[in-house]
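Dear support,

Our group has been running a series of protein-ligand predictions, and this particular one with manganese (II) ion is the one our PI (initials K.S.) wants archived with full inputs and outputs. We had some confusion internally about which version of the output was final, so please treat the block below as the authoritative record. The input we submitted was:
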Amino acid sequence: MSDHEQPPLPPNSRLSGDALPPVEQHAQQYETVRNAHETELIEDYVELIGDLLRHRGEARAADIASRMAVSQATVSKMIRRLNELGLVTSRPYRSLFLTEEGHKMAETSRARHDIVLHFLRALGVRDNTARIDAEGMEHHVSDETLAIMRRFTEKHQT
Amino acid sequence: MSDHEQPPLPPNSRLSGDALPPVEQHAQQYETVRNAHETELIEDYVELIGDLLRHRGEARAADIASRMAVSQATVSKMIRRLNELGLVTSRPYRSLFLTEEGHKMAETSRARHDIVLHFLRALGVRDNTARIDAEGMEHHVSDETLAIMRRFTEKHQT
DNA sequence: CAAATAGTTTAACCTTGGCTAACAATTATT
DNA sequence: AATAATTGTTAGCCAAGGTTAAACTATTTG
Ligand SMILES: [Mn+2]
Ligand SMILES: [Mn+2]
Ligand SMILES: [Mn+2]
Ligand SMILES: [Mn+2]
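Confirmed final output from the archive:
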């Protein structure tokens, strides 16, 4: 047992990092992240389809593929999944459309995405960086934090 | 007839939400998120092992399993992977240790995690919520945003 | 109209990250 | 010392999310 550089437990324990949280709380952190990962991609697809419909009038698989930088085969498979989940309707070789439920998810996701993006910009993050960070962060921001971000952005209007 | 070329800049769709970013920029958002997902779990494991070593003096697979709320089999498989990646050394039934490279990754990850956590608290997010959000957000925060968060937290010391 | 091009789907494959069940090794208890 | 409990490994399973290659359908163009 190399007791080489064992931690000397500094008297001022604030020297490096926080203490370990209790096991149950710590476990809840990771579980919440795993849950978010399960819905993350679905949300991004549905949100993008909603955005394409709103801004372009139609949402084709090829557009999704190029905007997501993913193969068309990947999109095709995912569309089948979205269909099974009752989020989109699709006829072969036609534009996709959102179901009522899909539309609701798209709206919610877009609203959340916008709050995070606008918050980052209000903080002073450059636009391109803010867009990249928001795309990942959005799925891990609680309602509580979201509300605080929204208020912060309002107060810091430019 | 997809958006191959530059966006024709729609007339006046300022009614709800932002405009669609150019295809390449949009694609970069999703690509960055996918890349982050590839390293995310590894970082969490290495960071947790580092924390256990620092606070407990040893890092056992069983502790990781309970703190991550995951089966021991899952941890065992992941440890083999961390070993192959040269991030940890392990002898059966003994504590794990970090390699030089693993130690470096643990430090970097912990520092980033702390910046995000402290930032959320400085923003006014309750501690438990901040911990949960930080666990997921940390992997999607750019260096630029991280620097801004650090400065913000310093300025808003309580 | 025929041919070329663009869009979509399917099949076969891969890696990650979970799980359970069975077994093996170590450590603790009686 | 024997047994029980804890800890760790292995095998086999699964779903998600990617890939290429090939086939099929629709649209555009010569
Ligand atoms: Mn989004
Ligand atoms: Mn996203
Ligand atoms: Mn972390
Ligand atoms: Mn994390």
